[in-house]
Specification:
The protein contains ten helices and 23 strands. By secondary structure, it is of the alpha/beta class. The protein has two domains: 2-34 and 77-114 and 256-327, 3-Layer(bba) Sandwich (FAD/NAD(P)-binding domain); 116-254 and 331-388, FAD/NAD(P)-binding domain (3-Layer(bba) Sandwich), CATH 3.50.50.60. A five-stranded parallel β-sheet has the order 5-2-1-9-20. The longest helix is centred in the C-terminal third of the chain and has 19 residues, at 301-319. The two termini are 24 Å apart. It binds flavin-adenine dinucleotide. Flavin-adenine dinucleotide binds at residues 7-13, 32-35, 38, 41-42, 44, 78-79, 111-113, 134-135, 165-166, 169, 257, 290-292, 299-302, 304, 333. Flavin-adenine dinucleotide binds next to helix 1, strand 2, strand 6 and helix 9.
């Protein structure tokens, strides 16, 4: 019986756990994750318009634990160290689980997602409370409060340099903020500015449509500029330009948690052998999956899940356990582009990328449709059901 330890109870961590447990009785899996719940990412932006509710996208781990009985142990704790030589993972207590400890492993899968790191932005420590975005639950609530009460001034949305998790989320935020302002009848007194550190709104496959929609809706787009300083009511860009803000929706540059670098497994992301072989460069028994892994693809839910199946396949192959999962890197996505008329009925763009061809094959429907917003909801709910329920 092999012990597989997984850091992170999200899309990739639970995806890999279930993939292993469903295929073989010869592994015991321990998932160590920091929160006692999981909150899905994709529809968080719709919390701004009230089209999504927290209770529809939150799940606990109890059903999962019951399904797999003693073959799956789920522990709650913040992992802060990996010791590859001793094959040990250390974790700190969390408020609801006041214990700290160590877990050993025969195989370790690292899947803790990303850290939002604004430490290189001057003034970040002092003015952190000025920042809100759609990425963290509390900050979404702050952003919702601010956008529903702002009366005038600049609303600034910032996308950091790629790679960051969910490429379209900053543009989605911009259009949803525009929608709420229009709905409230104050859009003509509030400027909406989208600052992008990249050369175009992300992902590139939909940039042309996003740019056109920004233009049509009077949204100022600034590209190739990073925010280097945050003040009480202003930001400074890397060309020295200073912009005042009434509302700031900033996403910090993303990286993997620092215990990865400290264990020598990669600088910003976990270095893996290839997208299909997710073993780390130095260790046969340590793998990575999901957003924390350095993959040549966007950081999104489909890719995270697909990488978790590849990681499971890598371990199953070592153990000589049956047929591998059939998996390829490709995704279909839906970007929320708000409602230009200010109705709280979000229209979405459908797009996709297939990485099995070279160059990757893009697809998109340039028409914005409300049915795509509904399709995204069904897709997200199906993921939550398949991963967290039974
Ligand atoms: C606002 C937003 C919008 C998004 N929109 C889309 C979209 O439209 N389409 C799409 O495909 N994807 C979207 N995504 C991205 C998608 O949610 C992620 O790519 C996916 O969740 C990555 O899976 P993961 O397992 O790597 O990370 P996660 O699902 O985040 O799971 C990581 C887990 O590890 C835990 N953890 C973190 N650090 C530690 C630690 N030190 N110790 C223990 N546990 C730890 C976390 O609590 C979490 O449970 C969006 C994400 C967000 C936030």
């Amino acid at each position: 019986m092999k012990q597989v330890t997984i850091i992170g109870g999200g899309i990739a961590g639970i995806g890999a756990a279930r993939a292993l447990l469903d295929k073989t009785n010869n592994v015991k899996v321990t998932v160590i994750t920091k929160d006692t719940f999981y909150l899905a990412g994709p529809s968080r932006p719709l919390l701004l318009t009230g089209e999504q509710k927290y209770e529809r996208i939150i799940r606990g781990y109890e059903l999962l634990r019951e399904k797999y009985k003693d073959r799956l142990d789920i522990r709650f704790g913040l992992v802060d160290k990996i010791d590859p030589a001793e094959r040990k993972v250390s974790y700190k207590e969390t408020p609801t689980k006041p214990e700290e400890g160590e877990i050993g492993y025969d195989y370790l899968i690292i899947a803790p997602g990303v850290v939002y790191d604004g430490s290189n932005i001057e003034g970040y420590k002092k003015h952190w409370h000025k920042i809100a975005n759609v990425y963290d639950p509390g900050r979404i609530d702050t952003l919702r409060h601010r956008i529903w009460s702002v009366k005038e001034g600049n609303v600034i949305v910032y996308a950091p340099p790629m790679p960051y998790r969910c490429a379209p989320a900053p543009s989605e935020t911009t259009m949803l903020l525009h929608t709420v302002l229009k709905h409230r009848g104050v859009r003509n007194k509030v400027n909406v500015i989208h600052v992008d550190a990249n050369d175009k709104p992300q992902p590139p496959v939909i940039a042309d449509i996003v740019k056109t929609i920004f233009e049509e809706n009077g949204i100022e787009l600034i590209t190739n500029r990073q925010i280097t300083e945050i003040g009480e009511d202003y930001i400074v860009l890397d060309n020295g330009e200073k912009l005042g803000y009434a509302v700031l929706s900033l996403l910090e540059p993303n990286r993997a948690p620092s215990f990865i670098k400290e264990a020598g497994l990669g600088d910003k992301w976990v270095e893996v052998r290839s997208p299909q072989n997710l073993k780390t460069i130095r260790y046969d028994d340590i793998l990575a999956a999901g957003d924390a892994a350095k993959l040549p693809f966007p950081k999104n839910q489909e890719i995270a899940y697909e990488s978790s199946l590849y990681a499971a396949n890598n371990i199953l192959e070592d153990l000589g356990e049956g047929e591998p999962y059939s998996v390829q890197y490709a995704f279909l996505g839906w970007a929320y582009l708000g409602n230009p008329e200010g109705r709280l009925e979000t229209l979405s763009l459908k797009f996709g990328l297939n990485f099995t061809t070279k160059p990757p094959k893009p697809t998109k429907d340039p028409e914005l449709r409300q049915e795509y917003t509904k399709a995204k909801d069904q897709w997200e709910q199906a993921y939550l059901k398949n991963l967290f329920e039974y």
